[in-house]
């Protein structure tokens, strides 16, 4: 059996050093899992670690999805077939630069839930129901039942968040009651307050860091003399925010940090060994200040992470540097890296068909979601939508002279229309002035098209609402709102009446076709476009934004077929020319 002692781990009585790499099944298409897992083996790893994002699997309370990209059972089978042990970090909260840290958006809408990530009874009731469905998927894969899952995590870096250790004990008991009998563990930063808030007596404690392993393990030892040294997240790269620079970490520096752990005899989980992609609208966000939740920083679509196995599954200089460190620990020669799939030739695709969003809002197609009326603007959660756009509208009674409009609780970006004319685009936290609006006649129509850019996944702002909370004209609250939700992300805008968009304000859908000789990987660039979403054959690749640093979107080969492939772009702000470029290399900034 798998056992833990102060000296380290052992399996069936033989010492086992965990050389693990994080790889999230939900950030890579299932057809590509074997390829990515092979790359981990070729780097010299013997274990793979994954989170489980609750919000992907339970899109509505009691409705579950374990298919395709969400097929955790198939992924765990694939990890065993690849000859790897597995570590599972199963939620409820995962952080992970993932929408809302993995917590479902509908928790934010449930008025019974007073707080998440603590022993709030209504929150725990949702967690228990989720665990009823999830734990039976994981349990058969445990090493105690002939599988390859060695350990399961309790919550995630709880010490960074709170002090309700009873909550952690509750989760541990809830997993045990549902058949999880491998060791449970926690992972936290190597600081006193993280470790006192995040660890649970009787369960292994591990630490997360990017460098200075010796100090980190010494701090862990001080708190937990009986626990072996394991870094559960060795940050060998990092993620990017829209509008910031692209983060890279020197491969030699990262390999030296890895060697320091290896020399200390420690076990390690490389975060990320392969990052993958935040497809659809799954990218999370940070706030500059995790304590106050101030200054919103949304994450880009790529989760390449500057990891040793890149977004496309290719090996990098960091891969080779890590392999050099790890191969000394291998029993025999390491396998060669897997061959790479074909790449699309570089080219251009004209998106010659188009239709204006505002022309289809009232049309007979599926975008015409019902108008919801309410005295005050409803949040996305109250409207029952996870992500996308909501067109809020109301009338300002007149006559009155010009007063400034102001919006409170904007999340995250609003196009402001006055009597149908675009008067500005305002972002959350920006100091840009809101337009002044005068009303000459009996009334003037104000509309706000609000976009959600991903819910915060770290700190006190987790569980935030999208939309707007209050709109004022001078000091006066504006009442009697209508809302038109346009959910985006998981699913294509199908059945649009394609033609040539009429002139006028608001976002525009564009469509064109890419001819491919065979399913192949590619990168899409959108030079001259501003901000929006891209779908390939109905699958949402994610968001793009001229602000960068990311300039190309990765197109995984399983999305394409030989022949004609549909590309749809929803451009929110306008583009110079409706042409996308196919490139043969990524540009992450
Ligand atoms: C923390 C979290 C991870 C991830 C990393 C940063 O360690 O536990 O989920 O957010 O930070 O990539």
Brief summary:
Belongs to the glycosyl hydrolase 35 family. The protein has 589 residues and is α+β, with helices and mostly antiparallel strands.
Low-pLDDT runs of 5+ residues are: none
The averaged pLDDT comes out at 96
Radius of gyration: 25 Å
CATH architectural type of the largest domain = Alpha-Beta Barrel
Pfam families: BetaGal_ABD_1, BetaGal_gal-bd, Glyco_hydro_35
Active site: 157, 233
Keywords: Glycosidase, Hydrolase
Protein name: Beta-galactosidase
Description:
- The protein has 589 residues and is of the alpha+beta class.
- The protein has three domains: 18-329, Glycosidases (TIM Barrel, Alpha-Beta Barrel); 347-356 and 493-583, Jelly Rolls (Sandwich); 368-487, Galactose-binding domain-like (Jelly Rolls).
- It is 19% helix and 30% strand.
- It is built from twelve helices and 32 strands.
- The chain has an eight-stranded parallel β-barrel with strand order 4-5-6-7-8-9-10-11, surrounded by five helices. A six-stranded antiparallel β-sheet has the order 16-25-17-22-19-20, with no helix packed on it.
- It is globular.
- The model has no long low-confidence stretch (mean pLDDT 96).
- The structure holds alpha-D-galactopyranose.
- Residues 94-97, 156-157, 208, 233, 239 line the site of alpha-D-galactopyranose (GLA).
